[in-house]
């Protein structure tokens, strides 16, 4: 994990991984077949950093998980770029189950459930990928220069000037992410039929035992503190 965090995906080879573990490269192939296998395992491992709490109010659970996923992806800046292939590790699947269980308690089913899961995942991935790339390739001066370019010609970009586009003093990444979550969750409220209202309060039909089993199986406990800010 340290190797990936320092060098990124392109800097990971089976040879330098073996060197960091003080084994031969041949020894690694007793456990994995390819570099892609290593990345899949590492990706699933970092999702284990997200604690699975006891289910509560469904929107609270969704917000917690999305913020926690984003925080994990930002702590491991190589990870957002690896998303885009099915990852079936136990930690990823357990947390995706937690998400869809919360959305189901909110009354989402079938297509609405699939679409909302997709929207939330892409919101987390896009936010984390953009921020991680920006941190790696530029800095505050680059964003300031971009903002100055926009404000230098207000006649050409009147809306961008008025909205504060790329103005870090007006809109920070955390706030933009939170507002995006607000918009997605508001859209779920509009999409759910009124008849589902009774199932949208509290924990009601949730099955805590299932989540408790998942937490025990994957090393997360209810008293593990939230990590703060996914697929």
TrEMBL record:
The entry's keywords = DNA-binding, Repressor, Transcription, Transcription regulation
Region Disordered: what ranges?
Answer: 192-231
Report what the protein is called: TetR/AcrR family transcriptional regulator C-terminal domain-containing protein
Compositional bias segments (type: Polar residues): 192-201
Its lineage opens with:
Bacteria, Bacillati, Actinomycetota, Actinomycetes, Micromonosporales
Q: Which GO terms describe its biological process?
A: negative regulation of DNA-templated transcription; response to antibiotic
Please state every residue range assigned to the domain named HTH tetR-type.
1-50
Superkingdom to which the source organism belongs: Bacteria
The ranges the UniProt entry gives for DNA binding are 13-32
**Which Pfam families does the entry mention?**
TetR_C_1, TetR_N
Keyword Transcription present in the record's keywords: the answer is yes
**GO MF terms, alphabetically ordered:** DNA binding
């Amino acid at each position: 994990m340290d190797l990936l965090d320092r060098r990124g995906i392109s800097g990971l080879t089976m040879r330098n991984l073996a060197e960091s573990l003080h084994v031969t490269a041949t020894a690694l192939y007793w456990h994995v077949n390819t570099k892609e296998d290593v990345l899949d395992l590492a990706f699933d491992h970092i999702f284990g950093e997200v604690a699975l709490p006891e289910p509560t109010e469904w929107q609270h659970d969704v917000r917690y998980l999305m913020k926690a996923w984003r925080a994990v992806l930002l702590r491991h800046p190589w990870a957002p770029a690896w998303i885009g292939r099915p990852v079936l590790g136990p930690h990823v699947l357990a947390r995706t189950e937690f998400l869809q269980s919360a959305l189901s308690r909110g009354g989402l089913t079938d297509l609405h459930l699939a679409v909302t899961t997709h929207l939330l995942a892409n919101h987390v991935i896009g936010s984390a990928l953009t921020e991680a790339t920006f941190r790696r390739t530029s800095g505050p001066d680059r964003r300031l220069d971009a903002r100055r370019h926009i404000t230098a010609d207000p006649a050409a970009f009147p809306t961008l000037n008025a909205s504060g586009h790329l103005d870090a003093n007006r809109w920070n990444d955390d706030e933009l992410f939170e507002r995006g979550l607000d918009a997605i969750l508001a859209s779920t409220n509009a999409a759910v039929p009124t008849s589902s209202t009774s199932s949208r309060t509290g924990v009601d039909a949730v099955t805590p035992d299932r989540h408790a089993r998942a937490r025990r199986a994957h090393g997360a406990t209810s008293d593990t503190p939230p990590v703060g800010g996914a697929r």
